[in-house]
Each structure stands twice: as C-alpha cells, then as structure tokens.
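Researcher: I'm preparing a figure for a lab meeting and need a structural model of a single chain. I don't have an experimental structure, so a prediction will have to do for now. The sequence is pasted below. Please return the structure as tokens so I can convert it later.
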Amino acid sequence: MKLIVQIPCLNEAETLPATLATILRAIPGIAEIEILIIDDGSTDGTVEVARRLGVDHVVRHVGNKGLAEAFQNGIDACLRLGADIIVNTDGDNQYPQQEIPRLVAPILAGRADITIGDRQTDRIAHFSPSKKALQKLGSWVVRKGSGTTVPDAPSGFRAYSREAALRMNVVTRHSYTLETIIQAGKKNLVIESIAVTTNAVTRPSRLMRGTYDYIKKQGATIVRIYAMYEPLKFFFLAGAALFLVGVLLLLRVLALKLLGQSLASYLPSIIAGSVLMILGMLIGLIGLVADLIASVRRLTEDILYRVKKMELLMERDRGEREQLLASILDFNEPPAAPDEGEAARRRREGRRSNV
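Model: Understood. Here is the structure written out token by token.
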C-alpha cells in the first residue's frame, strides 16, 4: 500500500518546512509514504527548499495555473507514481498533517472512497462571523446539491482512494473543493468526514480576497457543476419558475376581465406574461437537450476512467519489463576483475604460445 502526500504550493518557502516536519513517514498499514510538491509558479525558492528537505517528487508549472489545475495535475502525477491513497494538504501549514493516519483510516478499512477533514469552523478563532456564516451556507448548499453529508465542504485536507482519484475530473479554474464533492456525490462515491483542528494562521487566504469575491466564485462553481450533473432538474426548475410567473400575470388579467375591466390598460401584463411563459417552455426544452448531452458526458467520463486505468497498467507493465530486462542483462554492475593468480596463469600461457 503506497501513500503519496501532495502539496500544491505557491511561494511557500517560509511555511513549507513546518508543513513537511509534521508529515509522518511511517503509518500502520502503509508500506511506502512519499511526498509530492506541485509548484504553481513560485518565485521564492519553494522548490529548492522542498528538495533540500527531502521531498520525493516535484511537479512544476510554468507560471501560475491556479489551485484547481495544480490539484488535478498532482492527482495525475500521484496515480502515475503508483499511489494507492492520495492525501492533499496545503503548503501554508493550515492543516494538522500529524492527523493523516486518522484521515486515511476509513479508506484503509474499506469504509470510504474519500475522507475530508472537518475543520469545525465554529471553533476557528480567526474566522469572522460573516466568514463562518458563509462557510456554513456554502457547505449546506453543497450537501443539498451533492446528496452528501459533508460538514466542511471548502476543506482542502483530504484523502482519496485510487479509484476515487481516477474518477475525479476538475473542470473549474478557481478551486477543486466544492466541485469534487458534487462529483463524488453524483458518482456514488462514499465520503466520510473526521474532525480536525487547524494550526495558527501563517498568511492571508489567497482564495478569499473578500466576501463578494468568495460568494461570486464559489456560487458560480456550485451553479455550474450542479447544472452539469443535474441539467434536467436545474433547467426545469428555472423554466417552471418563469412559466409560473407568466401564468400568474395572465390569470390576474383574466380575473380583471371577468370583473368587467378593460384589457387595454393591462396590455403590458399580457405581453410580459406571454413572454415569460414562452421563455419558461424554451428553458425546459434546453433542459431536455442538456440532459441528453449529460448522458454523453457520463459515457465520456466512463471512457476516460477506463483509458486512465489502461494507461497506468501499461506504464506499470513497461516498468516491470524494464526492471526484468535490467536484472537479466545486469547493466549497472561492472564486470568482475580477474584475481592475480588467474592473471599470472594467462600471462604464462601467452608466453608459451609465443614460443
């Protein structure tokens, strides 16, 4: 059983040593533990610090690609390196890496495909009341949209089984946290949460630059991913709402007509009601088309999952063949030098043949 801890980093040279120092190198049930750094365009020597501290693997981006792409590239690299379990944590030492044994325990026991560290945001002292409220609201929306029971959806302290990692396909550019939970829920992957504490703040959040920015980006992510995985429900509800408003407007005009009032003064209401009803029906039809597209997407994701597994199996088989060939031909071992007695015997035989 091989565990790889991946750490997306952007200018984390100061905090990375503290993060790496708390990652255990021996966990019961795990034969190998390795650390992988995803350098997302750092300019402060993060990679040099990581290599000096004994990090096993480094994935480097040319320029800053964003957290979501760094996470996905890290997952892909861990899978190619043969990881059976992948743990994701942050380079700012926000999460308690010493809790990794508890984090991976449900996966080792076969109870879960994904485990997420619940930071218990109510107890985080440096979170403002508005941020705590937004965290709760966002997690509640994600629970409803994904059909899961995750109490802390934005938490990045997570563990993925190999099968779960193979099925993750991050398409948003902002963050992976909410999207992967909705994906997991729609793909019937089992998620379990464990309560953890957080470390002292080392730097301001780079994802949350303000309340408005946080709501805009996370809200857009939730809407986009929910519409991707539940298009018929999403567009049907939106279309039904518009259609209902249009019907109410026309019913109001009809009621006034029955009371003997002239329709001329209510012409705007008639036009608005008719337009809303037409828009509602069109959005409903868009939902039907989107649902058909979603069926194709599900088939495509299944094909992608199978292709990933085939590629990993082919790489593993190729590596095993290369190792076997190297052991047979023994490329790395120099030929043994003859001993002095054997060398002297050959010289005597050579002189005799010359005579």
